[in-house]
Amino acid sequence: MLNNSQNIQTLLVGPKFPDREFIRSGATFGEVYAMAAGFRAAFSGPEYEGASLCLAVDDRAVMAAVLLAALAGGPTLLLPYAFSAQALARMQQLTGFTTAIADGDRALPPGTTIIRPPARTVAAHAPCAPISPQAELLRIFTGGSTGTPQIWSKTGGNLFGEGFSLARHFAVTEKDCLVATVPPYHIYGLLFSVILPLVSGASVVMATPSFPGEIGEVIREQGATLLAGIPPHYRALRGKTVAASSLRLAFSSAGMLDVEDNEGFSRLNKVGIAEVYGSTETGGIATRNRHLGETSFTAFPTVAWQIKEERLCVRSPFLSPELPVADDGFFTTGDRVERSGPSQFILKGRVDGVTKVGGKRVDLEEVRGVIKKVPKVSDCVVMA
User: Fold this and answer.
1) Cα–Cα distance between 177 and 200 in angstroms, integer?
2) CB–CB of 321/153 below 8 Å?
3) Which end of the chain is less congested by CB atoms within 10 angstroms, N or C?
4) Rounded to a whole number, what is the distance in angstroms from the first to the last CA of the chain?
5) Looking at per-residue confidence, does 319 or 142 come out higher?
6) Dist. CA 251–CA 242, nearest whole Å
7) Beta strands in 143-272 (DSSP E)
8) What average pLDDT does range 218-240 have in this prediction?
9) What residue ranges define each of the domains in the chain, with the CATH number in brackets?
10) Strands 177-180 and 203-204, how do they pair?
11) Any residues with CB less than 8 A from the CB of 141 and at least 6 apart, and which?
12) Rounded to an integer, what is the distance from CA 381 to the centroid of its chain?
């Protein structure tokens, strides 16, 4: 098995399938690498040395190209949690960015220099030698209930190492086509609908369907084999048949999937859902597929885990560099777990009041505080 550095070096040599579609009925892998070369040339000026650039992009081909260029020595990228004027202004306040990569009209702060995607022409080679897998590649801003975004750093080894790991674990290849119901600027969408196709040779559908009818229509029209969804979408799909005969596996992340939603989808569509448990800062930790009779989570092969005082501790190559780890490399999460057999665990809840709603972290105690400020409200209980 190649290590992260070798995998990244191989990826940057050039596309394995230059004429194959990266975007279904859209940009080829060769065109993505051509854009990467164009971005790398644009980033070569002295004004970008040591700079951080806002990545205001939702085109999956453009995002893949920018990531390749950054991996080949480009500037650190800043990934916003939303493209609203408020979110982008707040990110600029926190980082001071003056330049953004944008593939459309964005509500960027006044005076921002905008880099547009270069023309798509076929290129056979990567733009430059890779940066160290330990070097910072991306800073991810996550939204939540507080209005103050959290910022997590990711190295090339973190992101692309996880992409290669996912491809191996779920046997994703150039024969697969993926549909995602989450945008690529969400960490789950970034990993599954940009990085995973890029490292595996699979194609991805450009559209991000969210309504039940749309999801089913896109799957059937594009002959998708993989679906990356989130719990609210599986709830909306309960009782509906959406899968074509081509679909072989679905994924769910960004929150816990309800058992009945899981079983309903799998029963009607004859396809299991691989739940991926993790977080932005830890990366993927474990998975289970109830359709295969799995009720507990099994850690990915690259992730070591242990339990201390009922809390899950993990050691993983996907951990954000700023996370505090013990001398043995383990990070203590905020999740309570219980061992289930020799190599599985069951999630029992949080040690704090944080939950996820629609993929966003929500602090229940802070929500309670806001509600208590409403006139004539003396007290309340917030549950999830």
Assistant:
1) 11
2) yes
3) N
4) 42
5) 319
6) 14
7) 150-155, 177-180, 203-204, 226-229, 249-252
8) 95
9) 4-156 (3.40.50.980), 209-351 (3.40.50.12780), 355-384 (no CATH)
10) parallel
11) 78, 79, 80, 81, 87, 91, 94, 149, 150, 151
12) 32
Residue 39 scores a pLDDT above 70: yes
- DSSP codes, 18-72: TTSBSBTTS-BHHHHHHHHHHHHHHTTSGGGTT-EEEEE---HHHHHHHHHHHHT
Looking at residue 284, what is its pLDDT? 97
Supply the mean pLDDT for the chain. Answer: 89
Residue 341: helix, strand or coil by DSSP? Answer: coil
List pLDDT tens digits, range 169-208: 999 999 999 999 999 999 999 999 999 999 999 999 999 9
CA neighbours within 13 Å on the CB side: how many for 211?
A: 3
Residue 298 backbone dihedrals phi, psi, to 5 degrees: -115, 130
Contact 21, 27 (CB under 8 A): yes
pLDDT band at 95 (very low <50, low <70, confident <90, very high): very high
Question: For the whole model, what pTM was predicted?
Answer: 0.89
Edge-to-edge strands, sheet with 273-279: 203-204, 177-180, 226-229, 249-252, 273-279, 283-289, 297-299, 344-350, 331-339, 311-315, 304-308
Residue 149 CB coordination number (10 Å)? 18
Supply the Cα-derived Rg of the chain in whole angstroms: 21
Is the CB of residue 22 less than 8 Å from the CB of residue 204? yes
In order of 18, 297, 358, 361, 371, the CA distances from 353 in angstroms are 48, 22, 16, 10, 16
d(CA 65, CA 137): 13
d(CA 343, CA 159): 25
